[in-house]
């Protein structure tokens, strides 16, 4: 007895208002709600909770339209932020979670996987400067397998530019940076890290390990001159044990430090005969010339 039931309007002492359907004293059905902070909700209610399809305006200026569960954005929905950013996709417990597309006008367009409100999993992101990344993400950053490319002709990022998006899909190609270098491989925190290959504009090509954006570990580099080095690297330089094969097939085998040989054997081109041993940048034991 004395409980709202049917259609009615309630003004609470806290500054909240509700206008809509009731059932046994609870908001149940279609209704509109506003609180003292400026939050507004219009949509379906179940047992005093926003549940189903609804629209909301947030105090900071954002608007959401889509599915709700237990007063939280949950399911499929479209969110327009106060700064103009737009997200359309899946939600879970008020966080972007699942598959979705984020557009920040004049900055970027991301389409792919989300987890706990950040990019996580496989996704594609195009940036306003014409560059794009396609690959794995973690905690909102490039992480894992992926390719980064730069295309000067990429259409400006816009939430309404569908043709530009299709052009991006058709234009996949070499992952080139602003210097014309091509990289394909692993990423960590937006830098080259792990296994990968890079073809440089000068004609060199490196395949192997990377750390924090530079060649580090084990790898091989074929130079534009026809020379080749295969072995250990440290901070982008030949460092450790490795073999250099020159265009005339003469080989230097041994230890290197900071791009210079420290102690190497020189092998003849025709039969791998050791013809000299060098150490500390000077010939130590000339064996055969």
Automatic annotation (TrEMBL):
<feature type="compositionally biased region" description="Acidic residues">
    <location>
        <begin position="158"/>
        <end position="170"/>
    </location>
</feature>
<protein>
    <submittedName>
        <fullName>Uncharacterized protein</fullName>
    </submittedName>
</protein>
<dbReference type="Pfam" id="PF02493">
    <property type="entry name" value="MORN"/>
</dbReference>
<dbReference type="GO" id="GO:0016020">
    <property type="term" value="C:membrane"/>
</dbReference>
<feature type="region of interest" description="Disordered">
    <location>
        <begin position="155"/>
        <end position="181"/>
    </location>
</feature>
<dbReference type="InterPro" id="IPR003409">
    <property type="entry name" value="MORN"/>
</dbReference>
<keyword id="KW-0677">Repeat</keyword>
